[in-house]
């Protein structure tokens, strides 16, 4: 076998603008175009839905700031996984990796691709919903296209992210401006939908429905953690990580609130809840014959988010394999393109499997359920390190009350929907995660069949033209 190149590394290609585009670009995606009707239907009133959106933004910012402190202490790629590994050890980290690799990330990619497909197909199926088979095929095509871009070149993937961030911000700006114009032309909107005294009429009281509403709202903010997955590819992470997160999350929170106000300024609550594509319904009311533009804008927005999520998702497998929790082949990079192509290919495959078996609403709810459990574990590491290792250098230090609030909110999001409205599917998800111990003990702890693994790794190396990559620290 030809001697492998030494010192192969994935380069630091991401600057501050690229970092902001990853944070904001993965947050602004399918959620703001798909979730508003679900949030409103769960809570029952416009005022309560806006409150859910605002609190979702605040909670996302608090959690992102906690991750920023961890990211500046542990300056390795891998996000939740690497933080849990360095703080709590191998077994908890394996479960975190299993959640990210098999549940959280693939479910997210599948949901984004479905939203891209549904919005892109709206102009071709006027007056009716496109067939599910067509939706799934178009969604699969979107995933494969993004995977190809990410496997070819890191700079190309970042440029795609920046371009689509600009496009999606412009699209949301059109919605915001349209809402302002609508309110200025008809002041009755304020009295009907946005009046403080009447906007909370009809609000539900079930903790379960509020938990589900937060699942949908927080799903739209998903992405605040993505820059932590690629810390080794970020220039000056001790400076650019906190800046990119604060700027990105703040921008998205303000935009989301204004967009939801705009939706409510031109649609009644019943119209919003019954809409299959809320941005298109808004566009038809405000832009008339040009309403189809919003379907394109929504599809492009979700495409940019899909690109950023796959970019970071592939790095999770890359790091987990490098630490011995996944096959070695997933820790390698292409010898010429310097992209983690094996892990990107594996991420794409799992996402396609999830896509074929689920719908948007179900995918979001079960993904959020597992995600916030592991967010709580990760954020608890901030408190743990403050107590156990107070002298660690901390380029960024978060106010200690923030991780406490995030952990409390996470416990609410995980437990309340189950206790208030138990469903057997949540038990299936938990059992699936716990079944990971059947893989961990023989194949990771005791390393059964190492010879077979080595032969398969060599074969795949030759086929994929990849080699082991060193850490950027």
Short description:
The protein is mostly helical.
Topology:
Layout: H1 16-27, H2 31-34, H3 36-43, H4 46-73, H5 80-88, H6 90-121, H7 132-152, H8 154-185, H9 188-192, H10 207-221, H11 237-266, H12 269-274, H13 278-286, H14 292-322, E1 332-334, H15 341-355, H16 360-388, H17 401-420, H18 424-434, H19 437-445, H20 450-464, E2 466-468
Antiparallel strand pairs: 1-2
Helix pairs in contact: 1-8, 1-11, 1-14, 3-4, 3-10, 4-10, 4-11, 4-16, 4-17, 5-6, 5-16, 6-7, 6-14, 6-15, 6-16, 7-14, 7-15, 8-11, 8-14, 10-16, 10-17, 13-14, 14-15, 16-17
Explain this structure.
By secondary structure, the protein is mainly α. Helix content is 72%, strand content 1%. It has 20 helices and two strands. It has helices at residues 16-27, 31-34, 36-43, 46-73, 80-88, 90-121, 132-152, 154-185, 188-192, 207-221, 237-266, 269-274, 278-286, 292-322, 341-355, 360-388, 401-420, 424-434, 437-445, 450-464; strands at 332-334, 466-468. It has a two-stranded antiparallel ribbon. α14 packs across α15. The radius of gyration is 22 Å and the shape is globular. The two termini are 30 Å apart. Mean pLDDT is 83; it is low at 1-6.
């Amino acid at each position: 076998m030809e001697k492998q190149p030494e010192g192969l590394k994935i380069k630091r290609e991401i600057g501050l603008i690229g970092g902001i585009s990853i944070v904001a670009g993965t947050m602004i995606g399918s959620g703001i175009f798909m979730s508003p009707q679900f949030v409103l239907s769960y809570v029952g009133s416009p005022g309560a839905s806006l409150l859910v959106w605002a609190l979702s933004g605040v909670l996302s910012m608090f959690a992102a700031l906690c991750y920023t402190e961890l990211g500046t202490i542990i300056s390795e790629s891998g996000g939740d996984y690497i933080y849990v590994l360095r703080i709590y050890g191998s077994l908890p980290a394996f479960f975190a990796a299993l959640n990210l690799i098999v549940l959280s990330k693939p479910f997210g990619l599948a949901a984004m691709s479905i939203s891209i497909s549904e919005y892109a197909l709206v102009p071709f199926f006027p007056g009716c919903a496109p067939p599910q088979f067509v939706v799934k095929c178009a969604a699969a095509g979107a995933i494969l296209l993004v995977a190809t871009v990410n496997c070819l070149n890191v700079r190309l993937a970042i440029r795609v992210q920046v371009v689509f961030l600009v496009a999606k911000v412009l699209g949301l700006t059109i919605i915001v401006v349209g809402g302002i114009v609508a309110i200025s032309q008809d002041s009755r909107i304020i009295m009907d939908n946005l009046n403080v005294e009447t906007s909370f009429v009809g609000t539900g009281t079930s903790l379960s429905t509020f938990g589900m509403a937060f699942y949908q709202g927080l799903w739209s903010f998903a992405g605040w953690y993505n820059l932590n997955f690629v810390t080794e590819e970020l220039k000056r992470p001790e400076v650019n990580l906190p800046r990119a997160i604060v700027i990105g999350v703040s921008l998205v929170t303000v935009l989301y609130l204004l967009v939801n106000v705009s939706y409510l300024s031109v649609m009644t609550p019943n119209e919003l809840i019954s809409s299959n594509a809320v941005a298109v319904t808004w566009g038809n009311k405000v832009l008339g014959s040009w309403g189809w533009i919003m379907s394109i804008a929504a599809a492009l927005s979700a495409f940019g988010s899909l690109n950023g999520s796959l970019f970071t998702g592939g790095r999770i497998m890359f790091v987990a394999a490098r630490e011995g929790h996944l096959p070695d082949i997933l820790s390698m990079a292409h010898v010429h393109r310097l992209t983690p192509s094996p892990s990107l290919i594996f991420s794409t495959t799992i996402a396609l499997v999830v896509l074929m078996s689920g719908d948007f609403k179900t995918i979001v709810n079960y993904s959020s359920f597992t995600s916030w459990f592991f967010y709580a574990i990760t954020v608890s590491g901030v408190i743990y390190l403050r107590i156990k290792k107070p002298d660690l250098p901390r380029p960024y230090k978060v106010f200690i009350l923030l991780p406490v609030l995030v952990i409390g909110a996470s416990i609410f999001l995980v437990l309340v929907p189950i206790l208030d409205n138990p469903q057997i599917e949540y038990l299936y998800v938990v059992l699936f995660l716990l079944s990971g111990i059947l893989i961990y003990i023989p194949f990771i702890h005791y390393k059964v069949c190492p010879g077979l693994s080595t032969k398969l790794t060599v074969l795949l190396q030759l086929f994929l033209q990849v080699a082991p990559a060193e850490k950027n620290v």
